[in-house]
Amino acid sequence: MNGKRREDIKIGLKVNIVLKKDQRSGKLTGGVVKDILTNSSFHPHGIKVRLENGDVGRVQEILE
Questions:
Q1: How far is C-alpha 11 from the geometric centre of its chain's CA atoms?
Q2: Can you say whether the dihedral through the CA atoms of 8, 49, 63, 25 is positive or negative?
Q3: Would 1 be classed as within a structural domain?
Q4: By residue range, what is the domain housing residue 21?
Q5: pTM of model > 0.85
Q6: What is the CA radius of gyration of the chain?
Q7: Which one of 7, 52, 60, 61 has the minimum C-beta count within 10 Å?
C-alpha cells in the first residue's frame, strides 16, 4: 500500500511521510498517524496526515 487512498490509512498506523521541506530531496520521516488531514478519498501525492510527534506530511509508505 502506498498511502494514496484514504481508506488504507488508519489512526495508529506506522507510516513513512515526506515533510513539505523534504519534498525535493524525498527524505522520509517515520511515525504513527495521529490525525488524517486530507478529506478526499484519493490524493496522487499521498494522503496528508499529522503524526503523534506533530509532524505533518503526505504518506509515502504504510509500514504496518
A1: 11
A2: positive
A3: no
A4: 6-62
A5: yes
A6: 10
A7: 7
Residue 19: CATH number of its domain: 2.30.30
Instruction: Report the number of distinct structural domains present in the chain.
Output: 1
- pLDDT 10s digits, 2-54: 899 999 999 999 999 999 999 999 999 999 999 999 999 999 999 999 999 99
d(CA 64, CA 54): 20
Chain center to CA of 42: 12
Written as nine digits, the cell of 51 is 503524526
Contacts of 1 (CB under 8 A, 6+ apart): 8, 62
Residue type, 33: V
Q: What residue type is 1 in one-letter code?
A: M
